[in-house]
Amino acid sequence: MNNIKGALFDLDGVIVDTAKYHYLAWKRLAEELGFEFTEEHNERLKGVSRMRSLEILLEVGGISRSEEEKLAMAEKKNNWYVEYIKKMDGTEILKGAKEYLLKLRNQGVKIALGSASKNAPMILDNLGITGLFDAIIDGNKVSRAKPDPEVFLLGAEELGLTAADCIVYEDAEAGIEAARRAGMGTVGIGRRDILKDADMVVSGLYELL
Ligand code: BG6
Ligand code: MG
What we know:
Layout: E1 6-9, H1 19-33, H2 39-43, H3 50-61, H4 67-85, H5 97-106, E2 110-114, H6 120-127, E3 135-137, H7 150-159, E4 166-170, H8 173-182, E5 185-189, E6 200-202
Parallel strand pairs: 1-2, 1-4, 2-3, 4-5, 5-6
The structure holds 6-O-phosphono-beta-D-glucopyranose and magnesium ion.
6-O-phosphono-beta-D-glucopyranose is lined by residues 11-12, 22, 45-50, 53, 78, 115-119, 139.
């Protein structure tokens, strides 16, 4: 992991804990549809795109809907989610995340965001950390969701670096797989038993300060 020139960060679960807000909004949708959506079910949605998340939720509820209805449901969920995250501020940055970004910048490492979320730009703005990123790749820029490597390959490209020069920080299994497929080193954020394929695993970025 020495001689790294670029660091690519996932957002949800690495820099900020938005999973709780995604969960509140999905749970609300499930309640409207008449079934319970537990925190355990919610684990399956981490790192997964908005539409794929909805499909998993409908599968849990044993419900099928037309494409048009699904789009309307996803929009409804997102409106609720945006209501929650609008109120976020810098106090919700996960422990050590901002300090770690600053530490890497001071070492001359280029930094990119590699997130599936279409709400990423608003979240970074609310947290006041947009300026710490040299490139921002989010759900609006990619067409293929993790575990496809597209998001990280685009990130390296925007930084002007090769995949071998980059390292990825991820909390989701699908994200670790995407980074490995891109040919990048991986740091898992979370539990070793879940992030088995990561090169190393820490509980949070604070451990790397
Ligand atoms: C990922 C989250 O970062 O973004 C997923 O881990 C989420 O839970 C995905 O579904 C898409 O987010 P958004 O904000 O575009 O609905
Ligand atoms: Mg994540």
